[in-house]
């Protein structure tokens, strides 16, 4: 089972990957939205913002998200680490229910190029 530190490192790596992307991926990541990522097996939630193509984590709190972020993710820590490492494809994890993504329709359309 991935630790909180490994999950934080994965989110930092994802942020670096988004910031270094080009073309449509960078454009899709250039949203300014509140973000939450609930790590279900550790029952911890990372909250912050997707801003300027980077993920900024502001807090890690116990339990599910206390407030409804504009972009909401939920998955196990192992799945987060595997997604960022490229060992798990987002589309497959999402369609099988291993990863949950909730956002407004327009945001989902923009985010689909990241997936």
Seen as an oligomer or otherwise, the chain set is single chain
Mean pLDDT across the residues is 89
How much helix, percentage-wise, in residues?
40-55%
Low-confidence runs (pLDDT<50, min 5 residues)? none
Shape: globular
Distance between the termini: 24 Å
Structural category: alpha+beta
Radius of gyration: 13 Å
* Major sheet strand order: 3-2-1-4-5
Strand content is 25-35%
Number of helices: 5
Largest sheet, strands/sense/barrel: 5 strands, mixed
N-to-C series of helices and strands? HHEEEEHHEH
The beta-strand count equals 5
Describe the SSE topology.
Layout lengths: L3 H17 L2 H7 L2 E8 L4 E8 L2 E9 L8 E5 L1 H9 L4 H6 L4 E4 L1 H7 L4
Parallel strand pairs: 1-4
Antiparallel strand pairs: 1-2, 2-3, 4-5
What does this protein look like?
- There is one protein chain.
- With about 120 residues, the protein is an alpha+beta fold.
- It has five helices and five strands.
- A hairpin with a 4-residue loop joins β1 and β2.
